[in-house]
Amino acid sequence: MLKKCFKCGEEKDRSEFYKHPQMGDGLLGKCKECTKNDVTKHRNKNIKRIRQYDLDRAKLPHRRAAQVKMTEKFRRENPLACPAHRKVQRAILAGILKRPTVCSLCGEARAIFGHHRDYRKPLEVTWVCQPCHKQIHKDLRRQAAETVLAEQE
User: How confident is the model at residue 92, as a pLDDT?
Assistant: First the structure.
C-alpha cells in the first residue's frame, strides 16, 4: 500500500514512513528521507544549542548509569583494549607517536582517533576521524554477522 509524502510529494511504500500513533493512519505525513533531511538541517542550524542539550542530557543519572554499564561491558569483553589505549596516550605524550591532524581514510581535518586493528599491538594504530572510525566498526560488525550466518549454513 502506498502513501504520499507531503514534503517531497512522492508516493512511497508505507514502510518508508515513521510510525506516529497520533496520526489517523498511524504514520507520520512525511517520508523517512524527508524527516532525516529536516532533522539534519535543524541540527546544523542550531548546533551550539543542540550540543549543549546533548551534554546536559548525558549528565542525567540514568544516562550516566547506562554509560558506566556500557564501559564495564566493553572492558569485560575487550580486556586488552584499555591497556592499549593507555599505551597510545603515553606514547603521544612522550612524543613516540604523533597524532595527525587529518583522517588517514577520508583526508578531512577533524578530531582524530587511533583505531587498533589488533589490541595486542598497541602502538600500531590507524588515525581516523570519528565518522570513519564508526564506519570501520560498522563494517567489522557486518563481517562478523556474515561469518556467523555462513557458519550456520
Answer: 96
Range of the domain at 17: 2-45
Residues of the chain with pLDDT under 50: none
Q: Is residue 54 part of a domain?
A: no
On whether residue 117 sits in a domain, the answer given is: yes
Q: Sign of dihedral through CA atoms 46, 58, 128, 113?
A: positive
The contacts of residue 14 (CB under 8 Å, 6+ apart) are 1, 2, 3, 27
| Number of structural domains found in the chain | 2
116: its cell numbers = 587498533
Question: Does residue 74 belong to any structural domain of this protein?
Answer: no
pLDDT at 153: 75
pTM above 0.70, yes or no: no
Cβ partners under 8 Å of residue 80, min gap 6? 119, 120
